[in-house]
């Protein structure tokens, strides 16, 4: 049986910022503020819809970042064939070396969740902190695999 996608409850926090809650993680739901029982205003609904369309429901509460990465031909096949959590690119360019350079405006966590599994088919170019995060994770995975060979 195929596992259904996660379901989320979208709301505004006490500061009016869009936030999300994964329903399967909720233990209880109760009203705790003066907004309880009232509908969203048109402006609030527009803000929520805009946040969902820009970031996707899983990443709605996070800040956007400009991300550049390079994909090999195999990486492009993975990108085109894997739709779950796939970020939409703003710009794509094919280089003479056969690699594709893609630019995104999305959350860093979405990039991490989606592209980390691409392994050698992806190279994070910008931002540097996300590139370093990928590098450390790949290095740790490599070291774990080397260590298990010695056992």
Compute the separation of the termini in Å.
Answer: 37 Å
Class from helix and strand fractions? alpha+beta
- Low-confidence sequence ranges: none
Percent helix = 25-40%
Q: How many strand segments?
A: 6
Give a structural overview.
By secondary structure, the chain is α+β, with helices and mostly antiparallel strands. It has helices at 42-55, 73-81, 108-115, 128-149; strands spanning 8-12, 18-22, 65-71, 89-94, 100-106, 122-126. Strand 1 and strand 2 (18-22) form a beta hairpin. The chain is globular.
Q: Which short descriptors sum up this protein?
A:
single chain; 151 residues; alpha+beta; two-stranded antiparallel sheet; globular
Which SSEs are present, and which pair or pack?
Blueprint: E1 8-12, E2 18-22, H1 42-55, E3 65-71, H2 73-81, E4 89-94, E5 100-106, H3 108-115, E6 122-126, H4 128-149
Antiparallel strand pairs: 1-2, 3-5, 3-6, 4-5
Short description:
With 151 residues, the chain is α+β, with helices and mostly antiparallel strands. Helices cover 35% and strands 23% of the residues.
